[in-house]
TrEMBL record:
<dbReference type="GO" id="GO:0007018">
    <property type="term" value="P:microtubule-based movement"/>
</dbReference>
<dbReference type="GO" id="GO:0045505">
    <property type="term" value="F:dynein intermediate chain binding"/>
</dbReference>
<feature type="domain" description="Dynein heavy chain tail">
    <location>
        <begin position="5"/>
        <end position="167"/>
    </location>
</feature>
<dbReference type="GO" id="GO:0051959">
    <property type="term" value="F:dynein light intermediate chain binding"/>
</dbReference>
<dbReference type="Pfam" id="PF08385">
    <property type="entry name" value="DHC_N1"/>
</dbReference>
<protein>
    <submittedName>
        <fullName>Dynein heavy chain 8, axonemal</fullName>
    </submittedName>
</protein>
<dbReference type="GO" id="GO:0005858">
    <property type="term" value="C:axonemal dynein complex"/>
</dbReference>
<dbReference type="InterPro" id="IPR013594">
    <property type="entry name" value="Dynein_heavy_tail"/>
</dbReference>
<dbReference type="InterPro" id="IPR026983">
    <property type="entry name" value="DHC"/>
</dbReference>
Length: 169
């Protein structure tokens, strides 16, 4: 039982740390007012990397051994652990899915950032069709908050491109 108690303490520390990572991921992001859409893709790539690393750690033999010992001891901490394990998997899947969908916009980031306003406008219908496709098909990215954030970043990029064009002209 002394070993079980020590292992439960370790698992409770992990639970606290993992909860912190999940909470931080859900908090509103503070971003510059003029940030473009490529930052959205980078954000989700970073999140995907973080959660994939966390999943790799959870699936390691060391962690599996500790969990199996606690299962044999019928530890009460396992209920919290299993719930958190599920939440991490959901967060990792969400990040991976969002990266996959946002990559479909990647081809527009260059023309949005470097083109003249006239050339940029030629890309807007295709860009908006792609955004619509993301909204209609993504299981995670189809919320009002996510779409608003993405469209705001696209608009910021268009404004920055126009400002740059006017200052050069």
């Amino acid at each position: 039982t002394e070993v079980t108690e020590k292992l439960e303490e370790v698992v409770m520390i992990w639970i606290k740390q993992i909860r912190q990572v999940l909470v931080e991921g859900e908090q509103m992001r503070r971003e510059a007012d003029d940030i473009g859409p490529s930052a959205e893709l980078e954000h989700w790539k970073t999140r995907m990397s973080s959660f994939n690393s966390l999943l790799d750690e959870i699936k390691s033999s060391r962690v599996k051994k500790i969990i199996s010992i606690l299962q044999a001891a019928r530890s009460k901490t396992l209920k919290q652990w299993k719930e958190l394990d599920g939440n991490i998997t959901i967060a990792a899947n969400e990040a991976k899915d969002n990266v996959r969908y946002l990559y479909t916009l990647d081809k527009f980031f260059g023309p949005l950032a470097k083109a003249s306003p006239v050339t940029m406008m030629e890309h807007v219908p295709s860009l908006m069709n792609t955004v619509c496709m993301i909204y209609c098909t993504s299981p995670y990215y189809n919320t009002s908050e996510r779409m608003t954030s993405l469209l705001l970043k696209i608009t910021n990029q268009m404004i920055n491109t126009c400002k740059t064009y006017l200052c050069e002209g």
